[in-house]
Each structure stands twice: as structure tokens, then as C-alpha cells.
Amino acid sequence: MDRLTAMSVFVTVAERGSLTAAAEALDMSRAMVSRYLAELERWTGTRLLHRTTRRIGLTGAGELALERFRGMLDIGQQLRDELAVDDPEPHGQIRVTCSMSFGQSFLARAVADFVGCHRQARVDLLLVDRTVNLVEERIDLAVRISHDIEPGLIARRLAVCRSVICAAPAYLRERGTPLRAEALIGHNCLSHHYVGKSLWQFQRDGEAVSVAVSGSVSANEASVLMEATLAGVGIAMLPVYLAAGPIERGELVVLLPDHLLQEMGVFGVYASRRQQPVIVRAFLDFLLQRFGDAGHWPI
């Protein structure tokens, strides 16, 4: 039995919560995953997992094994990276996470181009609507759009994320077009849970303007707000990377163009510089170059 592979299978099952999800992540059959787990339990001499028809959980021994196996896998990766210092070609697997909307709009294509250029590289892309704990979920790199990054993490600024106020032509025909920020009070404003949920802030002629907004839809994903906006439900504050296409096609109209919204940074975030794999550094450099290409990053 390849014990390192078996350990990796066990860790993936524990993190994903099912054999099927682990099999998909590892690109192997469910039967093979089961076989590795059985061999690992035979080798350790104890049951590591509770298996039911609905879920998989760790036994007490499994909790201890998970911690130890993660450490052993980390040591193995560090050794491979140290032995490959003279080989600048990115190789191995990197686990990357970002928001659903940004992943679908931008990062998925960037990942495809990266692995197309580097045939020995593999990327496991995790798109989620929450802030991921990089250590607990074994994330090598998170791409986050934020005003600041929580303490304890290392962030490399990749680009600026700008936003615009948008509405569909159908909504504006029915409800009218607001010409000043204060007019938004009388409109159905769709809000993001984490960005300006109930207070939109602008700069107009060098002065700060804040407007309390409310509406019939709020969400934790910008793509949800854009779909509601395209449907004519209301007015939304949307990131340019998401709204650029509908704006160019005339499906959305930019409102209050003389009112500037606060910019956010696009950061590549990771937990430690120690023994950073070549593939992580290469992917960060690739993203930095990609963000600098106006053809790929509509700002």
C-alpha cells in the first residue's frame, strides 16, 4: 500500500465529509477510496471512521490520526519542495479558494490558463460563500476581495476592485432614474451581507456622502444580486468584474457615475512564508500578471 496516498485519501475524506466528495477531489473511484481507507485502518490496527448511510465521522483514534497524518503530509511536501529548489517549473497540487462570483467570472479561466502553461501543476479550486480557515481546510492560497485582511495572515495585493451602482433598463422605466445619492432612499436597493449592507458610502465632489438603503433582496454573493438586478428587481452595488459584461451589452445601466464608491483590494492570502512551495509562488506571480492585463481585468 502507498501509505502517503492512503493518508492523503483519509485526510480528504475527513475534510470533505464523504467518500464520494473525496473521490471527486482526488480524481479516483469511490471503490479505490474505500480500499485505501480499509488498508489504512488495517495498518493502524484501529477504526478511524464511523460510517453511516448519511455521513462519515471520525472516531477518537481518527481525530488523532488526522492531526498526525496532516503533519506527515506537510513534511513530505516540504521535502519535495526542498529537493526541487533547482527546478523552477511549478509542479504538484495547490488548493485555492475564493468567492463563487469571482471564481466563475475570473479565477476559473485563470486557473485553466495556468495549468495549460504548466503541465505538472494541478489546482483544486474551492468556491465558497464564506471566509475559509486556511489552516483547518488546508488552503494554500485564498483570493479575497476586502478592505483589510485579518491578523496572522500574509497578503499580497494583486489589484483594485471597483464597484458601480447599476439597475436594469426595465426597472428604471418603471421607477425612474436616481440622479443623486440621496434619491436612493426611495428605491429598492439590493444589498450585500458584507459590503455596504444598509449604508452606501460615496465621494461626490470631494465630500463624503452616506445613504441608508433598504430593499427586498439581500445576499452574501454578488452574483445573486446581479441576477436579481438583471431581472429588474432593484438597484445594486456590483463589482465591476461581474457587471462589466451586462453593462457593455446594455442589460445594466450605470447610475450616479459622478459618485465614487470606496475601492477594495484584491489580495492573494496565505498562512505562512515558511517553505512556500514553488507552485504557490508561481500562481501568485501568474495572477499578478493577469490582473495587470486590461484585456482580462475590466477596470
Secondary structure topology:
Layout: H1 3-16, H2 19-26, H3 30-44, E1 49-51, E2 56-58, H4 60-83, E3 92-99, H5 100-117, E4 121-128, E5 141-146, E6 154-161, E7 163-167, H6 169-175, E8 189-192, E9 199-204, E10 207-212, E11 218-219, H7 222-230, E12 235-239, H8 240-248, E13 253-255, E14 260-261, E15 264-270, H9 278-291
Parallel strand pairs: 3-4, 3-5, 8-11, 8-12
Antiparallel strand pairs: 1-2, 5-15, 6-15, 7-12, 7-13, 9-10, 9-14
Helix pairs in contact: 1-2, 1-3, 1-4, 2-3
Helix content: 25-40%
The major beta sheet can be summarized as: 5 strands, mixed
N-to-C SSE series? HHHEEHEHEEEEHEEEEHEHEEEH
Q: Tell me the strand order in the biggest sheet.
A: 4-3-5-15-6
CATH architecture of the largest domain: 3-Layer(aba) Sandwich
Contiguous uncertain segments of 5+ residues: 294-299
Share of β-strand residues: 25-35%
Return Rg in Å: 23 Å
The CATH class of the largest domain is Alpha Beta
Number of helices: 9
Concise summary:
The protein is 39% helix and 25% strand. It has 9 helices and 15 strands.
Features:
299 residues; alpha/beta; Arc Repressor Mutant, subunit A; D-Maltodextrin-Binding Protein, domain 2; 3 domains; five-stranded mixed beta sheet; 15 strands; 25% strand; elongated
Written overview of the protein:
This protein is of the alpha/beta class and 299 residues long. The protein has 3 domains: 3-83, Winged helix-like DNA-binding domain superfamily/Winged helix DNA-binding domain (Arc Repressor Mutant, subunit A); 92-161 and 265-291, D-Maltodextrin-Binding Protein, domain 2 (3-Layer(aba) Sandwich), CATH 3.40.190; 163-262, D-Maltodextrin-Binding Protein, domain 2 (3-Layer(aba) Sandwich). The protein has 9 helices and 15 strands. The chain has helices at 3-16, 19-26, 30-44, 60-83, 100-117, 169-175, 222-230, 240-248, 278-291; strands at residues 49-51, 56-58, 92-99, 121-128, 141-146, 154-161, 163-167, 189-192, 199-204, 207-212, 218-219, 235-239, 253-255, 260-261, 264-270. The strands form 4 sheets. A 5-stranded mixed beta sheet has the order 4-3-5-15-6, with helices on one face. It has a 5-stranded mixed beta sheet with strand order 11-8-12-7-13. Helix 1 (3-16) crosses helix 2, helix 1 (3-16) crosses helix 3 (30-44) and helix 2 (19-26) crosses helix 3 (30-44).
